[in-house]
Amino acid sequence: MLDLYAGTGLFALALARAGRRVTAVEESRDAVQDGEASRRLNGISADQCQFVARRVEDALHRLRHRFDVVIVDPPRAGCSAQVITGVFSGLQPPWAVYISCNPEALARDSREIARRGYEIASVQPVDIFPHTAHVETVAVLRRRGQ
Length: 146
Prior knowledge:
The chain has a single domain (2-143), classed as Rossmann fold (3-Layer(aba) Sandwich). The protein has helices at residues 10-17, 29-41, 56-60, 81-91, 103-114; strands at 2-4, 22-26, 49-53, 69-72, 95-100, 118-126, 136-143. The radius of gyration is 15 Å and the shape is globular. The two termini are 17 Å apart. By secondary structure, it is of the alpha/beta class. The protein is built from five helices and seven strands; from the N terminus they run βαβαβαβαβαββ. Helix content is 34%, strand content 27%. Helix 2 (29-41) links the parallel strand 2 (22-26) and strand 3 (49-53). The longest helix is centred in the first third of the chain and has 13 residues, at 29-41.
């Protein structure tokens, strides 16, 4: 699995604990250091969960593995065109999970992702900030024909 915009490893560490091999990409070196410390504290090996301190756009060019699932949790603005192309035209995982804090960015990016052969399998809004206008949305995407 590939976790892009991984932060401190919220998803990556949980998935690694569940037995998945995860590569977590995060630009913030401080967040990567915190994620690595959490990995050690939780007894998860570096082979099971590897952190990469690099911009997602730069890391995509260096990845040589095939990933069954890619998790994308971009900043509020959504994914850059370079990331959408790198993931959905380059890596072409069978499945992707897009977590968004901005429904407009998710809608825009979903149109671009659909043009690259993907369809939305499910969408779930999650209200983790009660009494505010903010909502997280989790979209599960599958490559057509999967």
